[in-house]
Protein: Recombination protein RecR
Organism: Ferrithrix thermotolerans DSM 19514
Amino acid sequence: MYTPSVQTLIDELARLPGIGPKSAQRIAFYILKSDKERALRLADAIVECKEKVSFCESCFNLSESRLCGICSDKDRDRSVICLVEEPRDVIAIEKTKEYRGLYHVLGGVLNPIDGIGPDKIRVRELLKRLSGNSGINEVIVCTNPNLEGEATALYLARLLADSGITVSRLASGLPVGGDLEYADELTLGRALVGRRVLIGGER
Amino acid sequence: MYTPSVQTLIDELARLPGIGPKSAQRIAFYILKSDKERALRLADAIVECKEKVSFCESCFNLSESRLCGICSDKDRDRSVICLVEEPRDVIAIEKTKEYRGLYHVLGGVLNPIDGIGPDKIRVRELLKRLSGNSGINEVIVCTNPNLEGEATALYLARLLADSGITVSRLASGLPVGGDLEYADELTLGRALVGRRVLIGGER
């Protein structure tokens, strides 16, 4: 029904995450209607991204040079490393403006069912960074708070148990602005266990 | 926070219809993670579409040659023309498999507020197609059933009043599988006015 090029464009667009056949058609017609220069800007942006962007040699964050902007920033705290699954998690943490240390992007989490063991994620590279006189004294494990993320955190905590490096984990609890009534029992349970003392002695 | 190429890609993606900043980020990271060949296929599809696809000389549907597949199909009924706003409407009508005639894509509807008069949509080209010994005896106006679509239909009906060509309009009524309770009063009113006789004499 569509011409071959239009059909190819719709098929390629429909492969993108979160884009169904209807959205793909809508976007294809938008591209057809928009002026050529603007449409080619999108094509160029894709090509440029694939050609220029690779991984930082140190933390494996996305980078257009040997070291990423964070690793090459002299003002960052080099004694702490935040362990994340994907480059997008670096962006999420950077947006909080609460963290001034370095990162290490694992590129995934342990998942025995999918056959992803420690050799498939960047654990070896992490150990190399931590070895010798690295000056790193804390690793914050920021994998997602789900089954695989927790298992990976536990695995890494055990792996680093004798290294003398503090291994910490992101707090679990109620989201800010959330509602007790709608919190699932696991989250509420974690919030209880991890409660903070507001006044009074130690816990 | 992103590298320049990634930021450019996200910005370009976020310009597409129905894609917000979050989806744009998600798609950008998907493109960065997918293998180069696949990502470049999308870029190529965009370039190819803009280079190859233009308008059919007769009906102004999208086409990769002088005449579109429908206009050059010898088996189509050449006595009836379906008037639509956009090429995507051709696809919608073709999908019904109820229509075997030709099309004419107006490229918009009359909209005095936005300054779109008959000279901005392909009315002149329609009159040219209908003039002389065209063999066309019916024009079905398939503009959208909204204010601008109805006004355009009325305008065209008046324009062709003395041509001897039948001008018809898509039926308005309840959508199949719809519910009386949830139908708006305008639609229900139209369904009443346009009621079909199931048994008995003429209306």
Remarks:
- The CA atoms of residues 185 and 191 of chain B lie 10 Å apart.
